[in-house]
Specification:
The complex is a heterodimer of chains A (about 350) and B (about 140). In chain A, about 50% of the residues lie in helices and about 5% in strands. Chain A is an alpha/beta fold. The longest helix of chain A has about 30 residues. Chain A is elongated, with a radius of gyration of 24 Å. In chain B, helix 5 runs antiparallel to helix 6. Chain B is elongated. The N terminus and C terminus of chain B are likely disordered. Classes of the chains: A alpha/beta (about 350), B mainly alpha (about 140).
Chain lengths: ~350, ~140
């Protein structure tokens, strides 16, 4: 793996480069912050070790510049410092530094810190892999556009709102919201097991076809459960399984596949349920035009306490401006195309007409 | 023999620490010491110039750089001298620096002598130290 080392002191830079070379890293040395920033722009470096204090552009400023640019991949930055004061550490953290190393550096300590960085970068790769998997599953349905991107944004909005509530903040913390963002795109992963004649049918599903379609919840959950059993240390698989299994359950117990009700339904499933329906309502389908936000809002309110957890509906209402912003940013509808759905999907379906299946 | 030399010069330079930081590569340690000495000479000249021109910011930068490099080559006394100058310069207390500058200069000479003594151990000669510089840096 490549490491970019920035230090205006050639002796220190060469010592670090030698140690990292011994550990198997490919090292490039920049003699100041500006040169380091130019090198970082190439996108070749995901690990940066920078001196804190350099003339021209300091390590803190370099870090700040890297963060402002929002490159496609995360860049892990370790600042070398002789400082130990809290104020300086806070300044470094505020600039986006990931870790600190006190001079004189110890090679083994530097190695351990870099390995921590590599683990974090691997997690990001994991997230990309998970999302790619979800997109692959979704790719059979050409109509959904940026559905997964919107779903995870909606879920994050709801999660952040709930994390502020005394009734939920013990469960919904930053880690929970991050897991929700990561795993919500996998909610329909089980659709890979649904036959094309059902999944891609442009018209209304028959009751028999709907029964087949409903199996995507258990198919997805079974797949993810097998993965969760094999990798019990990966909590995201457990949440992903819960979401896949329960995102079509209803708060009143009339959903599927298990007819769970109220708190029997995991919170993540209740959150994704609302996000999924909102997105289905505000997106155009071959069988329906797109609802406006106001029309979708009305449906969600009507489903409060029956289809949806009242707390989740309340969270939605408190953050609806953010929903609108996401829909505008990631939606695939032209303004004015929205119309109210006139025909139900299934005459005898237990789910509302506009619900996704 | 190396151990004896190290013991006698630990106050100015810790060879074992440097070699460990060089991942046990004594040839590399020798080259680093040569580069450090060359840089030390240049930094000392720049430090004096900055001090005489009353440029506290430049004194801070150079002293900070000397402190970091000295720490990494395990020249602990030099590191302490440079740190004292850096701290005074940060506080704009240039008048108090002269004494520490003289001490630093004396320590640099002491360090150079110590390195010459260590030359047999690390294969570092006065000639070799003079021939390597950071100009390409």
């Amino acid at each position: 793996m490549r490491v970019l080392v920035a230090d205006d002191d050639c002796v220190t830079a060469e010592l670090i480069a030698n140690a990292l070379g011994e550990f198997g890293y490919k090292v490039t040395v920049a003699k100041d912050g500006r040169e380091a920033l130019e090198l970082a722009r190439t996108g070749l470096y995901r690990l940066v070790v920078s001196d804190w204090e350099m003339p021209g552009m300091s390590g803190v400023e370099l870090c700040r510049q890297i963060r402002q640019r929002a490159w496609s991949g995360y860049v892990y930055v370790i600042l070398l410092t002789s400082y130990s004061g809290v104020t300086n550490v806070v300044e470094g953290l505020d600039a986006g530094a990931d870790d600190f190393l006190t001079k004189p550096f110890q090679p083994q300590e530097l190695r351990v810190r870099l390995r921590a960085g590599e683990r974090l970068l691997a997690l990001e790769s994991r997230e990309l892999t998970i999302f790619a998997l979800a997109k692959l599953a979704e790719s059979r349905d050409s109509e959904t556009g940026a559905h997964l991107e919107r779903i995870r944004e909606y879920c994050r909005i709801l999660g952040r709102e709930l994390s502020r509530w005394p009734s939920h903040r013990d469960v919904v913390d930053g880690e929970y919201v991050q897991l929700l963002y990561l795993t919500s795109p996998l909610h329909d992963i089980g659709k890979v097991g649904i036959p094309d004649r059902v999944l891609l049918k442009p018209g209304r599903l028959t009751p028999e076809e709907f029964e087949i379609m409903k199996q995507h919840t258990t198919l997805g959950a079974d797949t993810l459960a097998a993965a969760a059993n094999a990798y019990p240390e990966a909590p995201f698989l457990t949440m992903a399984r819960e979401i896949a299994l329960t995102h079509h359950e209803r708060f009143d117990g009339k959903g599927y596949p298990n007819g769970l009700r109220e708190p029997q339904i995991p919170l993540c499933g209740r959150i994704v349920a609302l996000a999924d329906v909102y997105d289905a309502l505000t997106s155009r389908r071959v069988y329906k035009p797109a609802y406006s936000h106001q029309e979708a809002r009305t449906v969600l309110i009507e489903g409060c306490g029956t289809q949806f957890d009242p707390d989740i509906v309340e969270a939605f209402l408190r953050r609806e401006e953010e929903f609108i912003a996401v829909q505008r940013r990631l939606g695939n509808e032209e303004p004015g195309n929205e119309r109210i759905v006139q025909q139900p999907l299934l005459l005898e379906s237990p789910v509302p007409e506009a619900c996704p299946v | 023999m190396d151990q004896d030399i190290v013991t006698s010069t630990t106050a100015v330079f810790d060879e074992q620490e440097l070699v460990a930081r060089c991942m046990g590569n004594r040839d590399f340690a020798r080259r680093i010491l040569a580069k450090f000495q060359s840089r030390l000479r240049d930094d000392l000249a720049e430090l004096k110039e900055a001090f005489l021109s009353g440029d506290a910011e430049r004194v801070t930068i150079v002293a900070h750089r000397m402190k970091g490099a000295s720490a990494n080559v395990a020249a602990h006394v030099l590191r302490d001298r440079a740190a004292a100058i850096e701290q005074l310069a940060r506080g704009q207390n240039l008048s108090a620096i002269q004494f520490h500058l003289q001490e630093l200069q004396r320590e640099c000479s002491h360090f150079k002598e110590s390195i010459s003594l260590l030359g047999e151990g690390l294969g570092c000669t006065a000639a070799s130290t003079e021939s390597i510089s950071c100009e390409s840096w």
